[in-house]
Predict the structure of Helix-turn-helix domain-containing protein.
Amino acid sequence: MSAGTVAVVATEEIGVPSWDLYELSIPCTVFGKPQPDLADPWYELWLCGSGEGGTTASGFSLRTPHTLDDLARADTVVVPSVPDACVEEGAPLPSALVEALRRAHAAGARMVSLCTGAFALAEAGLLDGRRATAHWMHTGQLATRYPAVEVDDSVLYVDEGDVLTSAGLTAGLDLCLHLVRRDLGAHIANQLARRMVVPAHRPGGQAQFIDQSVPAADDAGLAPVLEWARARLEEPLTVRDLAHRAAVSPRTFYRRLQAATGTTPVQWLLAQRLQRARELLESTDLPVERVAARSGLGTANNLRHHFLNHLGVSPAAYRRAFPGGPPAQAGAAGREESVASRNASRPRTVPIT
């Protein structure tokens, strides 16, 4: 049994312009290349099209081994993009694709869009009443055309449980790694990210684009400071501590970090501590009190508060959601069961920093 079947929509009806080749390659790279030393078996990747073959907008031949009918048999369906004409000019989406997406969702598939793929999910009605995103250049059209969708143009990706959407280009890679983290745990996702030479995790709530009012040369010293802070998350770090390490004033450090990450120092530290707590919950059987201390969140109550605010679940419920990890301590699980049950109906979200 594999980690799951991932069906990627790649059809000549949609076309694959050169700009979108990157987004098509992301799920193929993440889910299509076996990683036997990380998880064996790995995912099974299907490229799905109309089955007719043809020449794409980029001028190369496209023939897929699977058809749109196979989407309904997949565990996860990924739509990397739609034609520019469907976004900019309001051209209709291929009806066969829209119907295939509806059938896949009805069959229980997890539905994922990268960039303008959100227009296909929205056309199929799968985003109605849900929060969703796309590339910030296209979120205005998405919101206007599909008013039932709660469009958020300020985030990298949105996880609504069984339906997930991402912004464009590299944000699609963030979302695919997030899926690996959900399915196989933090350790495997982090190792895969390292092989791909990308950040192990960017919270979905991070801003899509960066204010470049600060010259790039001024940011050269931030990376070692942030790495230094990540190694000391359990300590009571302050903005003054980080600024001192960077040899700048607190005001200057605040501006530089916000320009580079889209977040404030306090928000950045909270996001890193939440991420550390998630990794500990996924990969260890430490009690919640120790997880809170080692992640720098202080007390178990503080950890629960931030988990409920940012992820919508308790630490114990979060730990149970990741297969293959150590079981939570029975006492901690019992104490948090009532909290988890109250939040069971809430969709999973990623931290907004």
Remarks:
- Residues 216-261 form one domain.
- Residues 206-218, 324-353 have pLDDT under 50 and may be disordered.
- The chain has three domains: 5-195, 216-261, 267-343.
- The first helix runs from residue 21 to 32.
